[in-house]
Amino acid sequence: MPAEFPYNAIMPAQRLPRRSSGEGPFDLRRYLDSRTAAVNRALDRFLPTAGTKPATIHRAMRYSLFAGGKRLRPVLCLAAAEACGGAIEPAMPLACAVECIHTYSLIHDDLPAMDNDDYRRGKLTNHKVFGEGIAVLAGDGLLTQAFEIAAQCRGWPRYSHRDVVRELAEAAGSLQLIAGQVADLEGEGKKISAAQLRYIHERKTSALLRCSVRLGGMSANCAAAQLDALGDFGYHVGLAFQIIDDILDVTQTSEQLGKTAGKDVTAQKATYPSIVGLEKSRKIAAELTERAFAALEVFQGTAVALEALAEYLLKRDR
Ligand code: GRG
Question: DSSP string of 276-301?
Answer without folding.
Answer: H-HHHHHHHHHHHHHHHHHHGGGGTT
